[in-house]
Amino acid sequence: MSVASCRVGRMDSDDTRAHSQLLVLRPGDAGYDEELAGFQTGFTQRPDVIYAATSADDVVAAVSYAAGAGLPVGVQATGHGLPGTSQGGVLISTRRMDCVVVDPAARTVRVAAGTRWGQVVEAAAPHGLAPWGYLPRP
């Protein structure tokens, strides 16, 4: 049996639209600047629209909108990576897609796009699993 740890929705493909509450932000909207916040402070992003995705269907909706409007698409998970194209285009924020599913019997872990490494360690450790490359401190 798998054990899931998620803030929003679930990671299964069955839950998509039923559990999604897609937040769409434009410059000037409350929460727009906060959604852009990340760890890469040397870059300024100013997309025309931010899709705060909570599911794969939200990502599909954002990409479909961008394709229809002829806009470039950038993706930001947790704000650590270098930003993609998002000046004047569409930015898909996946920080809410932070699900970790641990299958102790198969000794596997599935991780959603916006999951932080600490969440993976926290979910896997109780099952005697340590993510590859993780060494606990003495």
Give a brief rundown of this model.
The protein is an alpha/beta fold and 138 residues long. It has four helices and seven strands, in the order E-H-E-H-E-H-E-E-E-E-H.
Structure description:
The protein has helices at residues 16-19, 32-36, 56-69, 117-124; strands spanning 3-5, 23-25, 49-52, 73-76, 90-93, 100-103, 108-111. It has 138 residues and is an alpha/beta fold. It has a domain at 13-93: 2-Layer Sandwich (Uridine Diphospho-n-acetylenolpyruvylglucosamine Reductase, domain 2). The strands form two sheets. It has a four-stranded mixed beta sheet with strand order 2-3-5-4. The two termini are 31 Å apart.
Average pLDDT: 79
Helix vs. strand class: alpha/beta
Percentage of residues assigned to helices: 10-25%
Q: Biggest β-sheet: count, sense, barrel?
A: 4 strands, mixed
CATH topology of the domain at 13-93: Uridine Diphospho-n-acetylenolpyruvylglucosamine Reductase, domain 2
